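notes to self, project folder thing:

trying the whole complex as one job this time. last attempt i did each chain seperately and stitching them together was a nightmare. two parts in total, labels are on each line so i dont mix them up again. if this works i'll redo the older ones the same way
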Amino acid sequence: MQRLRVAPRKNWQAEAERLGFAYHTLDGETYWDESVAYAFSLKEIEEDIEAPTSEIEGLCFAFVERALKDEAILRRLAIPDAQWGLIRDSWQRGDRNLYGRLDLAYDGKGPAKLLEYNADTPTSLFEAAVVQWDWLEQAMAQGLISRGCDQFNSLHERLIAAFGQLRNPKPERMHFTCVQDSVEDKGTVDYLIDCAGQAGIDARFTFIEELGLLADGRFCDGASLPVEMLFKLYPWEWLFREQYASALAGSRCQFVEPPWKALVSSKGLLPYLWEMAPGHPNLLPAYFEDDPRCAELGANHVRKPLYSREGANVTLVEGGEVRDSDDGPYGAEGFILQATAMLPNFDGNYPVLGSWLVASQPCGLGIREDTTPITKNTSRFVPHVIEP
Amino acid sequence: MKRSTQIGLAAAGVVLVATYWSLSGGETDDSLIYSNLSECRAANQLSASQCEQRFNEASADHLRDAKKFTSSASCEQEYGANGCQSAVWNNAQVFIPALAGIMLARQFMSGGGAAQPLLPPTNAACPPGTRQPGSGRPECEQPARSSSSSSSSSSGGYYGGSSSRSRAYTTTSGQAMVARNISSTGMASTPSVASRGGFGSTSRSFSSHSSS
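result (full assembly):
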């Protein structure tokens, strides 16, 4: 694994925009940064990223099975008991999942370590699936990187295939929703709508704030059309606590991601994975904050809220002192402590590897880089290559 | 190879619109299409003033975009008997296909996007023989012509008297499409909306931290 300096394409903004990539620059700062690329060997990708990703997904499935039989776990994950039935039913029916992203710390030397699993509402999908793919093709054509490079990235193909298999027979119509006023969320959803359309699905968009409830208990979109299948880029832990939470079970709606993803999308997953596979080379020791075993982590650890996004409310503690933290609104449901896997430092830059799964199959990599050891919503997305 | 072999994007930048309009060649959802103002109001999905506004906008666009004919006969040759209306365009008397309805892109319905004008089926799509009841092409069946062809008249539009369960239209770009009749199928089966806005409150309180 190497960090390469690469000349950006001369008209890189226009090239990104022609794909419909609306947020290559966020708040005046470069978000899509093609002056840098990480280079991997095929062996690193296949043995150190792809295989562990698959293995961790397997552990997560085993954990879902276990959690559904153990109310103490469901409570510990702060899942409202009114929603246990919804979650259990979605798992037992075998509701398909679409996608997820494992965040890994990896330096090319030791094993990748799981930082967390964005199982429910991962973003940075379009840049991983399309923008970096397009960059690779053009950068090779323009001689900016050596010809014959490849990329761990079949996301686009896999997404289209996965949409066709969300249920049998293939859904006719599907709704997609996210919040208003988030260009990044909207970009992710627009891309998924495009993929669904290519899978032959009549894909409709409605903002989450527009969703309504019909007299017969079904949800409806902004134009009052019943919603039978809903991709929601909106976290389950919020859906579970809002006004329509009590309507979820009776809505006859198939959700993507399915409700069972709520069990693996919180940081509460991490202590259980460690408990189920102690010493696993790709896992970090982790405990709930009130667990006496936290003492084993010593003075260096990371404190994470059960629910948090974009690094919010995460605290890096070193020698008992706070080294880096991010403010945010999370933490009401409790915290976990996790052993620190220091992100590798490449000239003052800290990359986090996002290892993508589509329909639970590892199939892509997206890297975000920050100048601090906690990856936040200010970090830059940088492309990667597999060297020939 | 570890990467996708090709990537197609339906239409970068205007993905939603492109995805939507690509459906217009086939069966389109009935609730998106209103053949006249009273039907729009009866569907109760837009307010009465929104209905009026959408029809007025569509009517203006229609006059601007529709193919202009110098005689009623030449227009009807393309759009069928009674398929045309007279209009004044650049101070000249012209004939244009009647405004047979409007189609709303669903994702724009609440946000104030424009409606697309719909034209009567062309004679190519619905030859003269198919325009009477019993022809086996119910979507081409042509109802009694209302007294006014004006789109904003509430006395019934071009297809107002049809008992057919489906209707043929032409889009401005010339695409043929078939819509199911809202008054005979859609309304009866669509339950009323009990409430709206029950999701999204956490996001509002958390501002920018919505996804990861």
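what i see at first glance: Residues 8 and 15 of chain B are 11 Å apart (CA to CA).
need to look closer tmrw
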